Amino acid sequence: METTMNNKLRDNYRCYRKDWNKFARDILGVRLDNEQQKILHAVQLQRRVSVRSGNARGKDFVAAASAICFLYLNVPSKVVMTAPTERQAIKIMMSELTKIHRNAKIPLGGEILQNQIKFLRPDWYLLAFKASDYKAEAWTGFHSPNLMVIVTEASGVEQLVFNSVESVLTGDSKLLIVFNPNHNSGEAFNSVKSPLYQKFKLSCLDAPNVKAKKNLIPGQVDYAWVEEKVRKWCVPISPPVDYENDEGESQTNIHCTANQDFKFNGKWYRPNDLFRIKVMGEFPEKSEDQLIPLAWIEAAVVRWKERQHEPITGELKLGVDVAGMGADFTVFCHRYDNYVKEFQTFQQKDHMRIVGLIKNILSPYEKANAFIDTIGEGAGVYSRLKEQKMKVTSAKFSECARLGNSKKELTDLTGERFFANMRAYCYWAIRDGLDPQLGGILAIPPIDELIQDLTEPKWTMRSDGKILIEEKSEIKKRLGRSPDYSDALALTYYPQPPRFQWLNEPVKFIEHPPFLPIEMAPLEEECRRRAEEWERAFNNESRIIRTVIPVRYK
Fold first, then answer.
1. pLDDT tens, N- to C-terminus, the chain (554 residues)
2. Between the N and C ends of the chain, which has fewer C-beta atoms within 10 Å?
3. What are phi and psi of 29, to 5 degrees?
4. Kind plus residue range of the DSSP H or E element containing 343
5. Residue 436 in contact with residue 259, Cβ under 8 Å?
6. Which run of H or of E encompasses 345?
7. How many CB atoms sit inside 10 A of residue 24's CB?
8. Contacts of 250 (CB under 8 A, 6+ apart)
9. What domains can you pick out in the chain, each with its CATH number?
């Protein structure tokens, strides 16, 4: 039994600490594909790494390699591995570790037991266990200057376990979570949206064995298995209308859309949720109560990247979510029709400075409009901008989903759904802009906080048939912060109320009658002036304001 570090490893210790992939190749003798190498490099440099994966794509193998790299290149160190079941922790993860350890090109040192690797030093070890076997208090014993926690099959691990993990992630600590994306909730799901994590996806369609149609890497998913699942779980479809065929492309080239459509062996397919999870390493399309599926948002990010060099069209709608007390940010959302150009965030609480920033943004544009949340902190900002004759709209999410004081209720794009309040209407408008079934072409920037904000809300239907979005306080509990980015975007969909209430309903305009008396000319001029003022105020493309002459008959 060898319980100390090998001399050759000790001599090259500094070199290998700088390059874990070199250590894995030269000392461990493991073969990692390109994606696995990127993951190992990220684990070396980043504090948190999230890996979602299809079946047999090598996620546990790269996690085991990461564990050994950390254990032997940080002395002393502790590696803690946990999973929802004992089988996953001991039979799978420890099995992978043992295989790598015993097949290393040189003796690594350390004694391998059923659920651990231990050394003579008591503060240097690796331990694997079932997640529920350790209570929250027990995790405090894992504190170390060099600590790595690995959670495998993380989508099945309860949030209570992750809360315990958070309590020990201090100093030079790392967290690696690997999982099949079975659920649209929990820490695993949140990790793909959180800015705290470096994120990776291992799709079976990209696996070396599948691309080459032969087994280059033993043990990884093979071509025959994927081909079988394509036939079993996918529906053949016509090529996307915006897809241009390329004679030189690979037979397994993927051109994903919002539905994760893909090309395989020269034909296009649409996957079901089983294929998304087991093969593509994607989350199910959506939960029944999830407002916006992650796949729609990822497609919108792709559209945003593709439109970077295109000219911006449409008028600016500026959503302004003004920060209150605490850690919230003031967030500006710049939207031009279906293109969200950017978000700006400000920490300062000085409302007059926020007024100045908004004025500077709006001033160069004749028809730009700012939509300000006036429930709370935004009220003073709105009032000051109105005093300065700026074009601003007071937005109140708690109000009924009607245009002004009209009795006519606002609906979604289909005209079939009604809403409990303006917040539900505005958030559903974002959903409509992303929904591929409605031709969704909204493009949004790749901001982790925004993606997290948009995928978090749930919706329900009240007994009166109106749609209600869950309370903001519930979302804040899960996010640990206010969803300022999605609120700012939602504000840009707030309907602009007409200046005069009778214009809420369809209006029939009366042209200037030819028998108008000469003495009514001043009245005519005044009406023309007011009509122009209304047109500037409305900025409503669906309504053409024409000169209206009020005629009274005696």
1. 344 556 666 778 889 999 999 999 999 999 999 999 999 999 999 999 999 999 999 999 999 999 999 999 999 999 999 998 888 999 999 999 999 999 999 999 999 999 999 999 999 999 999 988 777 767 877 888 899 999 999 988 888 899 899 989 987 799 999 999 988 888 999 999 888 999 999 999 999 999 999 999 998 999 999 999 999 888 899 887 766 554 444 444 454 556 688 999 999 998 887 799 899 999 887 677 889 988 889 889 989 998 998 999 999 999 999 987 665 789 999 999 999 999 999 886 688 999 999 999 999 998 899 999 998 888 999 999 999 999 999 999 999 998 877 778 899 998 889 999 999 999 999 999 999 888 889 999 999 889 889 988 999 988 888 999 999 998 888 888 889 999 999 999 999 865 544 343 444 444 444 444 444 455 556 656 666 665 555 544 433 333 333 333 33
2. C
3. 70, 25
4. strand 339-346
5. yes
6. strand 339-346
7. 24
8. 211
9. 7-202 (3.40.50.300), 221-280 (no CATH), 294-491 (3.30.420.240), 505-554 (no CATH)
d(CA 264, CA 276): 14
**Closest by alpha carbon to 419, among 319, 327, 490, 324?**
490
Q: Which tokens hold the place of 112?
A: 């391998």
**Whole-structure pTM value:** 0.65
User: How does DSSP assign 382-434, residue by residue?
Assistant: HHHHHHTT--EEEE-TTS-SBSTT-SSBPB-TTS--EESSHHHHHHHHHHHHH
483 contacts 456 by C-beta, under 8 angstroms: yes
